[in-house]
Write a structure and sequence with these properties.
heterodimer; A: 289 residues; Elongation Factor Tu (Ef-tu), domain 3; Rossmann fold; 7-stranded antiparallel sheet; 7-stranded mixed sheet; 34% helix; globular; B: 453 residues; Fumarate Reductase Iron-sulfur Protein, Chain B, domain 2; FAD/NAD(P)-binding domain; 5-stranded parallel sheet; 19 helices; 19% strand
Chain lengths: 289, 453
């Protein structure tokens, strides 16, 4: 059991939980994740650890409530306990001093890139952060990113905050003006693909953080298979950071779309099921026999 | 192959629930079966059991009406009798003198009878003299549990580390409720807990604690029984389509979720027509889980029905439950649907048959020309093999590995290339049976006892 020490609501549907987990906090490295199940019999979801404090023995999650399991996690209050947590899992990011590094994130990708930004800055790199969001309200973790990066650029699609445009367009300007050694990207598949196309011409090493659907996180179930260098590998064991130029994004997008389609269908069915049951309970005979 | 019939629920009733299908032997059939045992002086069944259970002796006690004595006799060699009585592959029955006539003594069913009826009404805490030495067991599967019980009985302090929230390893997460009920497993683990074994769950050792730390904390020996848990991917065209899953995803989901919840809303989504590709226990279990969800299931495998690597009773049960067997059928590819092309729609198969192509008298299984056909299925389950997970072995030591990736051990002492680090179970032998894993766990425990004392 892992106790929730603190909880904050950062934006609409975005929450931050501080959880007591001394063993995980002592060992976790940037780029690794843990698998979480909120209550017994629930769904296992992968969760990126945004911050880990080994002295206090606590880890921090920042997540968007975009699936039922995350909603359930977000409903926990201070003092309640998470049923189970397995980790740290995945391969840690290889952090070294290289020079100028661009960290690019859109949406909830920010929470996943934050520990990498911190580690890179600590190693002595000049970290340029680029954050993209739809509107000002959906922008999260701006203060944390400002501390973690040497320079932070923000774009919004509707122009409600800072610059108007896409994050990948901002990267183009940076690539023209600075000598970038490495690019980290986390977020939507389309953004990561656009970034990889941009950096491929200039031969800049690009690492993308993939987030396929994971059911176990230990290389056990095979739900998170992605195609890298023409080979199918499991993102939980050999990832989640991959060389962006060798990832097959079409395959990745198809797998995501398939899972999305199934999820929507399933949630709908579930709702319908609940509705039918409540109608038959309170108005017997209304829906026929 | 035995011809005894334990009491079972009817097929119509049992495909509606996840309850255990077999109720075990009635006392009368147990007596009849026990009396049938000729008590051979050479007892060929004894070497058949990797654990070395004294089979004729426990059958003799059973037919004399002493179930408690029979259970005590089994427990001398086997620490998980209720589990072995349900899901063991029963190599002893193949070694029986009646095996050739396909009328072996139902040793597995008798063992289950002893474990069901010989259990004392009150659990007793056993008083064992402790020597003060500590041993860590990593992983609580069949090998780990057996080793923990053996070590605790010898007076050592045993701490079992388990990554998942519940104990049992593959016995819990890789085996459906209707074959091995969770309460039976819990009772067996409770028995081991009463011997003084300490369990630590939610503790992934390789990542959060290194081998040096174990030595620093005063452990005299560490036993590695993490099993094989890294999937080896199946190389079949169309294996990445939507609706194509690996068997363990289904098994894990069915075992971690509550049963009624899983039945109402199975995750991952399982379509109306299901095809399962494979010939082991995992394939058959997945197929039977899908049958219990009311799906139409076909099992595709390239060998004959006799070559299925499962206990023969399970095949008969699955047949009663309405599983369609496509024996001697090789899957060629998984076909995509017509609309978007992202989901599976069927499995392209070819019939196989015995053929003597070069006239040399060697009959081999070969594809039949122009016999291709399609099994319609929107969900395809692949029951692939496993390999040793390198991440699970990240103990911070340079372990010597075998050619196939599993851990090398000294066959005499079960010691790995690192001093004080022992290994047993599937992590050494590759995918094997439960009873083989238990036997290797027992062997490793005995050599630890010898070394630590």
């Amino acid at each position: 059991m892992f106790k929730v020490l603190n909880k904050q609501i950062l934006a609409k549907d975005v929450k931050r939980l501080d959880v007591k987990a001394p063993l995980i906090a002592a060992r976790i490295a940037a780029g690794q994740f843990v698998m979480i199940v909120t209550r017994e019999g629930g769904e296992w979801i992968p969760m990126m650890v945004a911050e880990a404090e080994s002295l206090r023995g606590q880890i921090t999650f920042i997540f968007q409530e975009n699936n039922p399991a995350a909603v359930e996690l977000g409903q926990l209050t201070i003092g309640e306990e998470i049923f189970s947590m397995v980790g740290p899992l995945g391969q840690p990011a290889k952090i070294a001093k290289t020079g100028v590094v661009v960290c690019l994130a859109t949406g909830v990708g920010t929470a996943r890139i934050l520990p990498i930004c911190k580690a890179l800055k600590k190693a002595g790199n000049k970290v340029i952060g680029i954050m993209g969001a739809k509107t000002k309200n959906s922008l999260t973790l701006e203060p944390q990113m400002r501390i973690a990066c040497s320079r932070l650029l923000i774009t919004t699609e509707d122009g409600s905050y800072e610059q108007r445009g896409l994050a990948s367009e901002m990267l183009k300007d940076i690539l023209a003006s600075e000598v970038v050694r490495q690019v980290y990207a986390a977020g939507s598949a389309e953004m990561m693909q656009a970034v990889c196309q941009m950096t491929k011409d200039k031969a800049i090493s690009t690492l993308v953080q993939l987030q396929p659907v994971m059911a176990c996180g230990m290389g056990f179930c095979g739900s998170c298979r992605v195609r890298v260098e023409g080979k199918v590998v499991l993102a939980c064991v050999s990832g989640p950071l991959f060389d962006g130029h060798s990832v097959n994004f079409e395959h990745y997008k198809t797998r995501l779309a398939v899972n999305q389609a199934q999820k929507v269908n399933q949630d709908f069915q579930h709702e319908e099921d609940d509705m039918t049951r409540s109608i038959t309970k309170f108005f017997p005979g209304l829906l026929g026999k | 192959m035995t011809d005894i019939k334990p009491t079972v629920h009817s097929a119509v009733k049992r495909i509606k629930s996840f309850q255990e299908i077999s109720l075990g032997l009635a006392k009368k059939s147990m007596m009849e079966e026990g009396i049938r045992c000729p008590q051979c002086p050479q007892s060929p069944c004894n070497p058949g059991c990797p654990l070395g259970v004294d089979i004729p002796a426990f059958i003799r006690l059973l037919r004399e009406g002493d179930a408690a004595g029979a259970l005590a006799k089994i427990r001398e060699a086997n620490d998980l009798p209720a589990i072995c009585g349900r899901v063991c592959m029963a190599p002893c029955e193949q070694a029986c003198v009646f095996a050739e006539q396909k009328k072996s003594i139902g040793i597995r069913a008798l063992e289950r009878y002893a474990s069901d009826h010989g259990r004392p009404r009150f659990a007793l805490r056993k008083s064992i003299q402790r020597s003060g030495k500590k041993v860590a067991v990593i992983g609580s599967g069949p090998a780990g549990l057996t080793a923990a019980a053996q070590l605790a009985a010898a007076g050592l302090k045993v701490i079992v580390y388990e990554m998942m929230p519940h104990l049992g390893g593959m016995l819990r997460y890789g085996m459906p409720e209707f074959r091995l009920p969770k309460n039976v497993l819990d009772a067996e683990i409770e028995e081991i807990r009463l011997m003084g074994v300490e369990f630590k769950t939610n503790f992934s050792v390789g990542q959060s604690m290194k081998f040096a730390q174990f030595v620093g904390e005063g452990y005299s020996a560490v036993l590695l029984t993490v099993g094989q848990n890294s999937l080896s991917l199946v190389d079949l065209p169309g294996a990445d389509l939507g609706g194509v899953y690996y068997s363990k995803e289904i098994l894990l989901s069915a075992n971690t979720r509550f049963v009624d919840q899983f039945k109402r809303n199975p995750v991952p989504v399982i379509a109306d027509q299901v095809a399962v590709i494979g010939y082991g226990n995992a394939a058959l279990d997945c197929a039977r889980i899908c049958l219990r969800l009311g799906r139409e299931v076909t099992l595709i495998f390239p060998e004959t029905a006799e070559d299925l690597k499962v206990y023969p009773d399970d095949v008969a049960f699955a047949q009663e439950e309405g599983l369609k067997f496509e024996a001697l059928t090789k899957p060629l590819s998984i076909l995509a649907d017509n609309s978007a092309g992202n989901f599976a729609a069927g499995v392209q198969c070819v019939r196989m048959d015995f053929a003597d192509t070069d006239g040399s008298g060697k009959w081999e299984i070969k594809p039949v020309p122009s016999s291709e056909f399609v099994v319609s299925a929107q969900t395809v389950i692949l029951a692939g093999g496993f390999k040793t997970n390198a991440a699970a072995l990240a103990l911070g030591t340079n372990l010597k590995l075998q050619e196939n990736g599993s851990v090398w051990i000294d066959p005499q002492t079960s010691l790995t290339s690192v001093p004080h680090l022992y290994a047993a179970g599937d992590v050494v032998a590759g995918a094997s049976s439960i009873v083989a894993a238990m036997a290797s766990g027992k062997k490793a425990a005995q050599s630890i006892i010898k070394a630590v004392r």
